């Protein structure tokens, strides 16, 4: 936007969208903050008036709070690490000319179209079931004791399920980025004596840094609020109670809207801390 | 050392034979230019020499050693790409140092060579910038810098000046020629611009559809083009190629005469014609003359300024000393 005129024109054109988004965001946010200062127990008397910061103190001092923050961060971090590493590798692989590349690309993208609830159920019953799951059969084939995944390695299992869902997204974005890499740069590096791994490290990876940033930021937003995967697998047991799940339990299982709303505000704070942290680390990639 | 010999080298993409078997020898220290129309296979030939494409047949020898299956990095050649192919996320210094870093040279030596190349190419003030912050000519120089620090046995240039504006192109042309005189390294230079070919080359290789039409020094090609294609391609403005009943006296299928070898007169001459557009360059005037005998207008070059009004009648006389005669196959026989 170079000129004064184009800038103000841009502002006017953007205004409806900005106002709509603001409304969309502000109304629920205000309601959450509103309820968080109330004692509101729908099945036990309804609105029982203002309580000040009571809900905040109770939510924060509850023994479930810190473990839930930790579980949230572990899941987000684990999924990000897995999807980025394998996403980059898959993208590099799918960028190679090979037989049946078109079909493989579609297959790779397929998991993204499966609803979270469905995919979690499929993983739980088909793969991770300690009696009939495919993993159990595989373990038995090698004479090992089947692992009851969702209770013994619950966090890891959830990370695996969620990663499987998000890997296509990461791969897709990284693949388009890798395809935009000028092949002459790779050839120049080849002539400069860089072997394949160094070409990947010095040319391809820096080229992908911006796409990786985008993937990290977008995924973080969605991963902070994963719910269905936990709901249909462990129901928050075995250390998989994330902040989102904790809020759900407070609001719907304990029927305490005020307490849950206070948790919601904490979730917003956590999301912002994570966002600031990420922007510090990777956000500078977006500048240039 | 940088003697490159192509022995029956050929290249096909699938069923399409882009370069039929071809022989060529490039001597050490020579500035060789590949020139030809777009799509004739110049880049492909250069990439074959660089090792970026596998040949479909034949051998490449570099300094008497068979390099046909040697990977690009081991051939000791440096290439400057048309798009420059600079590494966008590295500073100019890191770009130039990259090949040395890959060769695991020690830090002090890398710094010394980078500083040296930068001062030769007037890049010292820009060493800490990114390629995106440089002008086209500066990027071009960085690409050349990245090539010279390796001290290769030959440089390969693929249309390095085609992204520059006309004035800058003339400047860079001189700089590259200067560099060649100083380094005395073999250079292979691809261009479709015959002016670049004529001004820079020790040896020009004219290609058409993957076939070498002629190899020779610029003046050899100018004086004695082997066939109609070379005759029409080398020289600016283009040679006038004439055929038809009007030239029966010359005992040739086609005759060629360069614009500078035609005398123009308002009173007498061999061919009569009417004056078309005149292009005034100051030092020269190019007059386009439409002759009834030939379908194409003839171009005539006149020294200095000449005023002929559009549509007036003139007479043209070709200089018999510089007349090229071609047979029905397009080959020159005198
Ligand atoms: N990877 C490829 N696959 C198939 N055909 C190709 C490939 N690369 C080049 N060609 C074909 O080979 C021919 C020669 O291409 P090349 O790039 O060598 O032309 P060029 O002489 O460099 O032309 P220009 O002056 O336009 O750069 C062209 O007809 C082109 O279509
Ligand atoms: Mg080319």
Characterise this structure.
Chain B: One of its GO terms (cellular component) is maltose transport complex. Chain B: It comes from Sulfitobacter brevis. Chain B: InterPro entries: AAA+_ATPase, ABC_transporter-like_ATP-bd, ABC_transporter-like_CS, ABC_transpr_MalK-like, ABC_transpr_MalK/UgpC-like, Mo/tungstate-bd_C_term_dom, NA-bd_OB-fold, P-loop_NTPase. The complex is a heterodimer of chains A (288) and B (334). In chain A, 73% of the residues lie in helices and 3% in strands. By secondary structure, chain A is mainly alpha-helical. Chain A has a domain of 176 residues: MetI-like fold (Orthogonal Bundle), CATH 1.10.3720.10. Chain A has a two-stranded antiparallel sheet. In chain A, strand 1 and strand 2 form a beta hairpin. In chain A, helix 9 runs antiparallel to helix 10. The radius of gyration of chain A is 23 Å and the shape is flat. Chain A starts with a helix and ends in a 6-residue tail after the last helix. The mean pLDDT of chain A is 88. In chain B, a hairpin with a 3-residue loop joins strand 14 and strand 15. Helix content of chain B is 25%, strand content 32%. Chain B is built from eight helices and 18 strands. Chain B is α+β, with helices and mostly antiparallel strands and 334 residues long. At the A-B interface, helix 9 and helix 10 of A face strand 6 and helix 2 of B. The structure holds adenosine-5'-triphosphate and magnesium ion. The site of magnesium ion has 3 residues of chain B, from helix 1.
How are the secondary structure elements laid out?
The complex is a heterodimer of chains A (288) and B (334).
Chain A: H1 4-36, E1 38-41, E2 46-50, H2 54-61, H3 65-94, H4 101-109, H5 116-127, H6 134-141, H7 149-152, H8 154-179, H9 183-191, H10 196-223, H11 228-232, H12 243-253, H13 257-282
Helix pairs in contact in A: 1-13, 2-13, 3-8, 3-10, 3-12, 5-8, 8-10, 9-10, 10-13, 12-13
Chain B: E1 4-13, E2 16-26, E3 31-35, H1 42-50, E4 57-62, E5 65-66, E6 77-80, H2 92-102, H3 107-120, H4 136-148, E7 154-158, H5 166-183, E8 186-191, H6 194-200, E9 203-208, E10 211-216, H7 218-223, H8 228-233, E11 240-243, E12 254-257, E13 262-265, E14 271-280, E15 284-291, E16 298-303, E17 313-318, E18 324-326
The complex binds adenosine-5'-triphosphate (ATP) and magnesium ion.
